[in-house]
Write a structure and sequence with these properties.
This protein is α+β, with helices and mostly antiparallel strands. Strands 1-4-5-8 form a four-stranded mixed β-sheet. It is globular, with a radius of gyration of 22 Å. Bound molecules: flavin-adenine dinucleotide. The site of flavin-adenine dinucleotide has 19 residues, from strand 1, strand 3 and helix 13.
Length: 412
């Protein structure tokens, strides 16, 4: 039990969270500090096409492999895949601790634990035997990386509008189409790509979409352009094209025509991750703000003495505490086998909204200092603002919550 939360994490979860913190202090933070000039300088972080520089890609790989060796990278990966088999409460609590500890200033921290859209997770539980033998070991060791290609230029919130087609070709298929916003596709070895395998069922929104594991060096596949966001000269998201890319039966993930369920399973993991990320970053931001308000003087007093500074921070603290409880509760419900669609939507949506307000307030509390790259609030704000769209926009989550209410789920 912490001072603020009236129930304790189970012993195994608490032990893993402490282990993750120790690992982050020993392996992640020192690597970031030793390389912060490379990582913080966008002229060095990216090459001239906007892709991460080879030294950056190597650092990301070092974090993944060190964490896999230490036993943390795959902590929430099902045991059937060789992972730690811990549930979503452990996943939530470990990520929350990482972001709380590292805040917006440690860019490498995001690679400490496998995330469904770059490494092993339950999303890969139903790959074929051949994929399990040939693809999973490299990913579980952190040596290789994947990405998840669901969104397309005409298919965002409504992912059933996917147009990438998998046309039968002998015993396999040929994929043609275009993906957009795919995080890490420029540096990943594999993509799980969603494609229409039964146009009639897909048009009727009754399945007809399948998931395929595609190597990013496949003939006919190309990353067309890195998408530059927030004024960055490069980034992780990119647009890619499939031009009759051949896929074989062993590359199918899960059941034919049922790939959408794979996507939804991943998005649920992403919602837990992003709830934890929002709360962890907010706790870090509030701690920085409280400390600064006790040091900084204006008009003969510490700024902590002005209610214009302290009351908004008190409101943020209240909201983050509520968000933390929502996240812990949603993860607990999911681990107990509940679908928790409403509760997970509430946790992700509220945590992100509360985090946006908190980080904005932290910037304001720090005056001009709040806008410097050095303090990390700008990086944290960008992160949180983007996840107000990724893994379900705030409006789509509100829609989901209200649909549950309309369906009679009024348990609050
Ligand atoms: C940083 C980042 C990383 C991403 N990474 C990936 C990735 O790795 N793989 C991947 O496949 N995708 C990825 N995405 C894409 C993401 O899943 C989509 O951006 C998201 O689903 C929203 O789709 P859209 O951007 O096309 O917006 P749209 O669906 O076009 O929505 C536009 C606006 O309309 C609103 N809207 C839409 N429908 C409704 C409705 N019914 N009611 C009310 N409002 C509505 C939305 O909330 C939004 O405000 C990423 C996005 C971001 C920002």
């Amino acid at each position: 039990m912490s001072g603020a939360i009236g129930f304790s994490l189970p012993d195994d979860v608490a032990a893993v969270v402490e282990g993750v913190e120790a690992f982050t202090r020993a392996e992640v933070i020192p690597r970031f500090e030793a390389n912060h000039e490379l990582l913080d300088d966008v002229r060095r972080r990216y090459d001239d096409k906007g892709r991460y520089a080879p030294e950056v890609v190597d650092l990301i790989r070092q974090i993944r492999t060190a964490s896999a060796r230490a036993g943390y990278f795959n902590l929430a990966v099902p045991e059937s895949m060789g992972g730690g088999g811990l549930g979503l409460l452990a996943y939530y609590a470990a990520w929350e601790r990482i972001y709380h500890l590292c805040g917006g200033t440690n860019w490498l921290a995001q690679f400490t634990i496998s995330h469904w859209a770059f490494g092993p997770s339950r999303v890969l539980e139903r790959v074929t035997e051949r994929a399990a033998a040939e693809v999973l070991p490299g990913m579980m060791a952190g040596e290789t990386m994947m990405c998840f290609g669901m969104s397309e230029p005409d298919a965002g919130s409504d992912a059933t509008m996917i147009r990438t087609r998998a046309v039968p070709d002998g015993d396999g298929w040929r994929l043609s189409g275009r993906k957009i916003w795919t995080t890490h596709v420029p540096i990943a070895e594999w993509m799980i790509a969603l494609a229409v395998t039964d146009p009639e069922r897909a048009a009727a929104k009754r399945g007809g979409i399948s998931a395929f594991l595609v190597p990013t060096n496949a003939e006919g596949f190309a990353v067309e352009q890195i998408i530059r966001m927030w004024g960055e000269p490069g980034g992780s998201e990119a647009e890619s094209v499939f031009d009759e890319v051949r896929v074989e039966p062993w590359q199918l993930v899960g059941e034919l025509h049922e790939g959408f369920a794979i996507g939804l399973s991943g998005v649920s993991l992403g919602r837990i991750y992003n709830s934890a990320r929002a709360v962890g970053l907010s706790r870090w931001a509030i701690e920085q703000s409280v400390a600064y308000s006790q040091q900084r003087e204006a008009f003969g007093h510490k700024i902590a003495e002005y209610q214009g500074v302290s009351f908004p921070l008190a409101d943020c603290a209240t909201e983050i505490h509520a968000a933390h409880l929502l996240g812990l509760n949603a993860a607990t419900l999911l681990d107990a086998g509940h679908r928790a669609i409403k509760e997970l939507s509430m946790a992700k949506s509220y945590s992100v909204q509360a985090a946006l307000r908190t980080i904005e307030r932290a910037m304001q509390t720090h005056g001009a200092m709040g806008f410097t790259n050095e303090l990390g609030f700008v990086e944290a704000y960008h992160t949180i603002r983007a996840i107000n769209v990724a893994d379900g926009t705030n409006e789509i989550l509100a829609r989901t919550i209200f649909q549950r209410l309309l369906g009679g789920d009024l348990d609050l």
